[in-house]
Amino acid sequence: MKISIKDVEYVALLSRLELTDEEKVEQLRELNKILDSMEVLNKVDTSGVEPLAHVLPIHNVLREDELRATLPKEKVLQNAPEEDEGMFKVPKIV
Amino acid sequence: MGQYEAVIGLEVHVELKTKSKIFCGCPTEFGGEPNTHVCPICLGLPGVLPVLNKKVLEYAIKAGLAINCSIAEFSKFDRKNYFYPDLTKAFQTSQFDLPIAEHGHLDINVNGEIRRIGITRLHMEEDAGKLTHQGETISSSLSSLADYNRAGVPLVEIVSEPDLRSAEEAKAYLEMLKAIIEYIDVSDVKMEQGSLRCDANISIRPVGSKELGTRTEVKNLNSFRSVQRAIEYEIQRQIDQVEEGERIIQETRTWDENKGVTLSLRSKEEAHDYRYFPEPDLTPLVISRDWVEELKNGLPELPEAKKLRLIADHGLPEYDAGVITSSRTLADFYDKTVSLHADYKGISNWIMVELLKLLNAENMEISESKISPEGLAKMLKMIENNTISGKIAKQVFEEMFNTGKDPEAIVKEKGLVQISDEGQINAIVEQVIANNPKSVEDFKAGKEKSIGFLVGQIMKETKGQANPGVVNKLLKDKLNEL
Amino acid sequence: MELSTIHGLRDLLANREISAEELTNQALEKIEKIDDKIKAFVTVTKDEAIQVAREIDQKRRKGESLGPLSGIPMALKDNMCTEGIKTTCSSKILYNFIPPYSAKVYEKLLGAGSILLGKTNMDEFAMGSSTENSGFFPTRNPWDLNCVPGGSSGGSAAAVASGEAVFALGSDTGGSIRQPASFCGVVGLKPTYGAVSRYGLIAYASSLDQIGPFTRDVTDCALVMNAIAGHDSFDSTSAAVDYPDYTSFLSNDIKGMRIGIPQEYFGEGIEPEVEAKIREAINKLEELGAVVEECSLPHTQYALPAYYIIAPAECSSNLARYDGVRYGLRAEDADDIISMFSRTRNQGFGIEVKRRIMLGTYALSSGYYDAYYLKALKVRNLVKQDFDLAFEKFDCLLTPTAPSVAFEFGSKADTLAMYKQDVCTIPINLAGIPALSLPYGLVNNKPVGLQLVGKAFGEGTLLRVAYTLEQNSEQTRLEPSLEGVK
Questions:
Q1: C438 neighbors C446 (Cβ within 8 angstroms)
Q2: What is the DSSP annotation of C365-378?
Q3: Would you say residue A76 lies in a domain?
Q4: How far apart are CA B278 and CA C372, in angstroms?
Q5: Which of B18, B63, B162, C248 gets the most CB atoms within 10 Å of its CB?
Q6: How many CB atoms lie within 10 A of CB B92?
Q7: Per-residue pLDDT for B118 more than 60?
Q8: Which residues of C touch A11 (CB under 8 A)?
Q9: B462 against C280, higher pLDDT
Q10: What is the CATH number of the domain that holds A22?
Q11: H helix count then E strand count, chain A
Q12: What is the DSSP string of B218-262?
């Protein structure tokens, strides 16, 4: 067991997932199983190995500072679950 | 504050004035109807990808160089993950462990003492959208509205070391930083429009202590005045708290400008765990030394260097040189005027006294006034060749400030040309002597002062247009003849 | 068979033996007839398809120049944005999302003249190996309706295998093109990372995702690659290299070609019957003049755990934007923002997606980053170095695509058992190199796939080997009887 139900709750909060108690228990079981299976990585000697974040040796991909067409407003808002005054409406924040 | 010392660090966000956003081609222009400066990319729609604006990188390097940072040879972007409705992707594309610039400093002058303030880092990131809270305050509103016009506007964040010790120093640092950014022309640096923003990290500790106290972060500082007031307030609040035996809580606080207090931003917020990791959709940056060198050579003279030059080469007083170089527009105005008429002190005096007085009275920026360096230079020449007197010149200056008219035209229009004709002045001198026998008697009796009154009367008669030198000479001659 | 390939149909269309509209109608009729059994499509774009077909026919009548795929009906996995057409990732959280823009690959295919029949089912957000994780319904394997088509691009594979579409695009993050291609008996290619623009592909794991084709034969694979590969200024990770004419590699000749057989991909975990088929293919290649030799990729066993750190980490961030604010599902009953976020996401995502979000969030969270994420990136480098070293000696490598043939629904309910489905394909994504799955015979009347792995931008070599094998072995040309659906 690598993680506890508290860890599951913390990670769920960070992930913004409102899990039910049953879901928490299931996630705990599965996550521990997966994390246990990753133990094998500790056997690999990675000293002196560079982390590989980008697989292609590409760098400095830049664009010129030029304007492009913006999206028409009706298309901006066409998928909005709730809209008001041309803006996306959300429930209270604090 | 007695036995306590404040420890302050500033995090300053500067909006870069590129045409397009940092990762897409939408305009960065301020204003605009909500959600009209957006595209699939800055809206963070499923499937979109960012491409870095070259100008953003260039401006960030320039800014880094101007604040004495070393520019990274290898840099990259990272994702800062957190949920907030003003973020379209629920992460902010920023830089974490390999910022574009690090290890800089700025020298500030507070009460004649030069202090070197360390700069930890400068990094590039994107701005978020804007939320409008429906209702009185953020805490009483039931809903908010999101406008993403600002989402993706390029920013640099400049983080200082906790080297500042007072609100005054913080303000001086911020003013110097603003001046530098303005000089290198990478931002409008307007606090009221949000293109310059400042958060302050503040803690206190007993004088002599080396340990840092628990700090609070104060946000919502929208003017230089609020930076100074908020820091002063927060330092005192922390002292009072400690004196009462209470602990300082590490938290984010907001400055309430109207009430003049900082307030805790209590929320259900979890510990900040931003889960930074390298942005896989952007490639790393390898910054060539040649490019850095080229940008360095292209930097204009910065305020501190310019100030020293005005003191050493132009003989200006340190204070005047400091004021003139504190803003690029003022310094440019001085430079231009000097290039037309090399009267350094004269020009400096006119800027320091008349120009700043009028600007302050109107609460204006120099760019908003109508006066031009050409006009000022011409006017100074007119004083020098006795076309107008210094006193008249103040009238002319004000007229130029308001209308932008040519000084010669103003003088002609208003009939302000100086009278130096001895015959014309002599007639008035005689008339004034005749009308003021008491003063003449006083002069004869040895009261030298009374000559001043007589000069004043002559100037009054000529509406100030008489050449004061000629008046003095002729009056003395006449009095001695009597 | 010849008639259902791009190159076969292209000639019929050019000779006006069939019109694009007729061909499109045939495809739509087939979908109507069999897709209630196969369930390959999430959305069928009937009206749009017919309209585009008519436009192409008109152009042809007028003698206007036509793109290389003109009149060919195809399908897209439902994680590629199609302007004005619902794009869901087979997730409830995007059940109603209509993108206002199109993915680059879709633009390119439209430009080439091909006709979109619809959007295909997938494991939700491309997370899974069976298409059982679709938020809507599972897709069934045309070879055996009791079996899965593989995943995550199961809908695209099934659509091509059943003849509903002439070709389809899928995406491959850890095997999601190759494994379903293997299970459904079609050709599937995962191109080199950076060879096909990801702009408009709804991201699962950005550093691993790549779009590629499902086709009925190797020639078609080359034809589709010609249409979709190339540099794109909208994708920073797109490679600015010279892209070849992929059909130029279609020569029936592999004499002297050096093919490596990495021993780690055989033995334990691989079904013996599958291994036997692959060994047959190896013998065939030797017969055809290839120089075959065993080799070793020693870090292979670490690829799977490294992948299950890297991919979920990126996914936890990529899927954070589904928060109910701007599009998609929003939970109804929330009165503050945090509960709106949390309820929307809990209702909208399926269990596997939530699991990977949680796993990735954990791996990136404070205190665990170095132990998990950083470690995984280092292991990723070792896996890539294994391949770099192997390609100093070999032109390509050959392995099984999947450890088994298509399995029955529900038979891999165990999370780890399902993850192991991708044991042969994941290392290739970590290294960013291309790999092609080619059908090679049947086991229990279900197709086996062999995987050819090449060096970066070495798709041509894979096409050449696959083409040669295809020309010389009946085992590479498989067609399901479709008895269960008639």
A1: no
A2: STTTTIIIIIHHHH
A3: no
A4: 14
A5: B63
A6: 21
A7: yes
A8: 358, 361-362, 365
A9: C280
A10: 1.10.20
A11: 3, 3
A12: EEEE-SHHHHHHHHHHHHHHHHHHHHTTPPPPPEEEEEETTTTEE
Instruction: Provide ipTM, 2 decimals.
Output: 0.97
Nearest by CB to B20, which of A10, A58, A66?
A66
| Whether A50 contacts chain B with CB within 8 A | no
Q: At what angle do helices B318-325 and B328-340 cross, to 10 degrees?
A: 110
CA C2 to chain centre: 23
Q: Answer yes or no: is pLDDT of C122 > 90.
A: yes
CATH class of the C2-260+392-485 domain in this structure: alpha beta
Interchain pair B91, C320: CB under 8 A: yes
Q: Nearest CA of chain C to the CA of B341: how many Å?
A: 52
Q: What is the DSSP string of B119-147?
A: EEEEEEEE---EEEEESSSTTT-SEEEEE
Question: Is C338 an interface residue toward B (CB < 8 Å)?
Answer: yes
The identity of residue B301, as a single letter, is: E
Q: Is C129 labeled as catalytic in the residue annotation?
A: no
* CB contacts, 8 Å: A81 with chain C: 324-325, 327-330
Q: Of 3.20.20.120, 3.90.1150.10, 3.40.1780.10, 1.10.10.410, which CATH number belongs to B422-481? A: 1.10.10.410
Identified catalytic residue from C19, C91, C152, C182: C152
Domain locations in chain B as residue ranges: 4-291, 301-414, 422-481
Burial of C35: CB neighbours in 10 Å, binned 0-12, 13-18, 19+:
buried
**What is the total count of domains within chain A?**
1
Per-residue pLDDT tens digits for C305-340: 999 999 999 999 999 999 999 999 999 989 899 999
Q: C240: closest CA among C478, C18, C457?
A: C457
Q: Smallest Cα–Cα separation from C129: which of C172, C193, C87, C75? A: C172
C152 is catalytic: yes
A10 lies in some domain = yes
Separation CA C381–CA B10 (nearest Å): 39
What's the rounded Cα separation, in Å, for the pair C80 and B5?
Answer: 59
Dist CA C90 CA B426 (whole Å): 102
* Cβ–Cβ below 8 Å for A90 and B143: yes
Interface of B with C (CB under 8 A): 40, 43-52, 79, 81, 83, 85, 88-91, 144, 146, 268, 271, 273, 275-277, 280-283
Q: Which among B179, B177, B155, B180 is positioned nearest to B164, based on CA atoms?
A: B177
What is the spatial distance between Cα B77 and Cα B281, in angstroms, rounded to a whole number?
A: 9
Question: Do residues C317 and C285 touch, judged by C-beta distance below 8 A?
Answer: no
Q: What would the DSSP string read from start to end of C313-358?
A: HHHHHHGGG-SSSSSS---SS--BHHHHHHHHHHHHS-HHHHHHHH
Binned at pLDDT 50, 70 and 90, residue C300 comes out as: very high
Residue in chain A nearest C309 by alpha carbon:
A38
Tokens 């000529």 sit on residue: B462
Contact A93 B131 (CB under 8 A): yes
Identify the active-site residue in C19, C171, C176, C182.
C176
Give pLDDT, residue C167. 98
- The mean per-residue pLDDT over the stretch C411-415 comes to 91
Question: What pLDDT is stored for residue C1 in this prediction?
Answer: 37
Residue A8 lies in a domain: yes
Minimum-distance CB partner of A94 among B34, B38, B139: B139
What residue ranges do the domains of chain C occupy? 2-260+392-485
Distance CA B90, CA B103 (A): 30
Taking CA atoms, C128 is separated from B86, B267, C411, C422, in Å, by: 32, 37, 14, 9
Joined together, the tokens standing for residue B417 give 């040309």
In this prediction, residue B369 carries a pLDDT of 83
Q: What is the pLDDT of residue B139?
A: 66
Domain membership flag for residue A25: yes
